[in-house]
């Protein structure tokens, strides 16, 4: 039952987001096409390489914080959905878990990332290093922590695994994943804002460089 509810909620989220997106731009603008499908291919490749002992308790890098900062919230939801569907089609995920994975593994980290960016933008000094270390580095770690705790909680509350199994075989890996995930997102955004700032939806020189 919970899988059906999750699938319905994820479908509603996708439909709501897609209705607000300029899809005509995706069909006619080469730059938009390259950005969306390039980012989708990147996270698909990252998500293919995963490991785990118990079914469903797989670990892999997310890169969803960088995706959110580059594309913005709505395009990030769209891009991650394409990647998730592709992973599911390739057999990396179960179709029955599409709604759960969409909400907890995609929408949740993206929402956390965008909320952290928004709070930083409005509450902290708009400085280049704040953008890199807070919005990219620290938020990348927070996003993967939120995702793994949420997914672990799902398996625990649905009685699929005991909390001991979840902590010993899944959550314990947070100590190994949080810092590399933070580095991956931080390094990505450092290179992007240095060499291709016009490709980054959430970064503008007038806020982070010129407004001093």
Give the key terms.
mainly alpha; 10 helices; 212 residues
Please describe what this structure looks like.
By secondary structure, this protein is an all-alpha fold. The chain has a single domain (2-208), classed as Arp2/3 complex 21 kDa subunit ARPC3. 75% of the residues lie in helices and 0% in strands. The termini are far apart.
Shape: globular
What's the total number of strands? 0
Question: What is the tally of helical segments?
Answer: 10
Terminal residue distance: 53 Å
Structural class by helix and strand composition: mainly alpha
Looking at the overall shape, the CATH architecture is Orthogonal Bundle
- Which residue ranges are poorly predicted, with pLDDT under 50 across at least 5 consecutive positions? none
Roughly what percent helix?
over 70%
Task: State the major sheet.
Answer: none
Strand content: under 5%
């Amino acid at each position: 039952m919970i899988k059906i509810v999750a699938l319905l909620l994820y479908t509603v989220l996708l439909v709501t987001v897609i209705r607000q997106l300029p899809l005509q731009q995706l069909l006619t603008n080469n730059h938009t096409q390259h950005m969306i499908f390039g980012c989708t291919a990147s996270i698909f490749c990252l998500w293919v390489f995963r490991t785990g002992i118990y079914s469903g308790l797989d670990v892999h890098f997310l890169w969803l914080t960088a995706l959110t900062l580059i594309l913005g919230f709505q395009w990030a939801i769209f891009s991650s959905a394409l990647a998730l569907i592709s992973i599911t089609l390739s057999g990396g995920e179960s179709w029955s878990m599409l709604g759960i994975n969409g909400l907890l593994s995609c929408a949740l980290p993206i929402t956390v990332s965008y909320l952290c960016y928004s709070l930083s933008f409005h509450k902290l000094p708009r400085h280049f290093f704040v953008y890199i270390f807070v919005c990219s580095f620290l938020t990348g770690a927070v996003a993967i922590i939120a995702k793994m705790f949420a997914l672990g909680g799902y398996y625990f509350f649905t009685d699929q695994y005991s909390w001991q199994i979840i902590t010993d075989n899944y959550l314990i890996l947070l100590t190994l994943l949080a810092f590399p995930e933070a580095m991956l997102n931080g390094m990505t955004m450092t290179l992007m804002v240095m060499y291709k700032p016009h490709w980054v939806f959430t970064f503008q020189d007038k806020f982070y460089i010129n407004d001093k």
